[in-house]
Fold this sequence. Notes:
This protein has helices at residues 10-21, 27-47, 50-67, 77-95, 122-127, 129-141, 144-155, 160-167, 171-193. Helix 2 crosses helix 7, helix 3 (50-67) crosses helix 4 (77-95) and helix 6 crosses helix 9 (171-193). By secondary structure, it is mainly α. It has 9 helices and no strands. It has 2 domains: 10-95, RNA polymerase sigma factor, region 2, helix turn helix motif (Rna Polymerase Sigma Factor, Chain: A, Orthogonal Bundle), CATH 1.10.1740; 107-193, Arc Repressor Mutant, subunit A, CATH 1.10.10. Residues 1-7 and 103-119 have low confidence and may be disordered.
Amino acid sequence: MNRPEPTESPDADRALVEAVLARVPRSFEELISRYQGLCWHIVLRMVRNPEDARDICQETFLRIFKYLHQYRFDSPLKSWVAQVAYSVAKRHLERKRIPIADEPDDPEAGSLLDSVSDGFDLEAANADDQINRLLHAAIDALPALQRSLLTMYHLDELSISEIASITGIAEGSVKSHLFRSRKRLRQWLELRTGAIT
């Protein structure tokens, strides 16, 4: 399920959506193929259980098929698909009464809301195998919302504005969550490796 999505364009999005709506054979399979990795990243980071994640991804694509006629091309198809995946996963967590975020916001984030970067290079930390394993364990220990936001920002390379649109969370709050998550990851890794400053 971790197949990378090809670079999409508004014209390619429109052609694919129109093909699916016109019931062109294999067009919906193409949509699934293009976006299943994105869906899997978002859902698995939120729910953490692979079996639940598979079910939620299936439910996501069923909802996409059912409501694709409502997609208005005012955002990239990738963002719309991610929004549906996030919404379905969030409802799953709410039904199970699993909190999706820590409360309240970190007061230390302050003026750093304008910059997600805090000097911690997540990609460089990801390069070493041992740190990679520790990093994934640390990410798994984060609340569902923070895991999901990190995944969207770093793995799926969505912009802050796209993430805000997908989640319905204000851009400043997305930045705050990313800042807090990165800070927690850095502290967690420092405690276990002593190698990150």
